[in-house]
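REQUEST ID: PR-0412
SUBMITTED BY: lab tech R.K.
PRIORITY: routine
TASK: structure prediction, single protein chain
INPUT:
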Amino acid sequence: MAHVSLPHDAKAGPTKSEVRAVLSNKLDLGPTDHFAEVGSCTGAVTIEAARAAGRVTALERKPNRLEVTEKNLAANDTTAEVELREAEAPEGLPDDVDALFLGGSRNYHAVLDHAVETDIDRVVMNVSRLEVAGAATEAFRERGLLEEVVQFQVSHGYELAGATSFDSDNPVYMLVGGTNPAAADGGRER
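STATUS: complete
OUTPUT:
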């Protein structure tokens, strides 16, 4: 996986590289996929998706964060056609998306309704707050989207008194699903 350069700060943390690695696996993007992201912020997920998918649409409702996404995107090599939209989801979402990532929890009920209405194959949502994770899991389940919930926590080592200790990042709850059920062999039908 190529390094993502994020020289510009959005005053909100990017999705950590370890979380993006799991996200990339769950999204399983290919060169013919149209990927959409709700809440692009620093552009870290946008950049990685633009290296795997054919088309990327990134939504960000805050103009200053969309500008950061644009600058960070320009600082990286990508191959996809990328459209950045200053928009609120679900209104700004295209209707021909194959894979969708929700990086935040704002309007997620309406975004999940849009995913069902437009038959989005793969939907992944990251959540860092326990109460939101529970409510979002129920929202995925009610819409028939839920395939799995993954909770993980990454720790990074640092030197302490000549030995290694660890600082832990916040846990991440990753809700994974979509409107196209997984094939019997564990892969996606395409």
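NOTES: Helices lie at 17-27, 44-49, 63-74, 108-117, 130-142.
REVIEWED BY: pending
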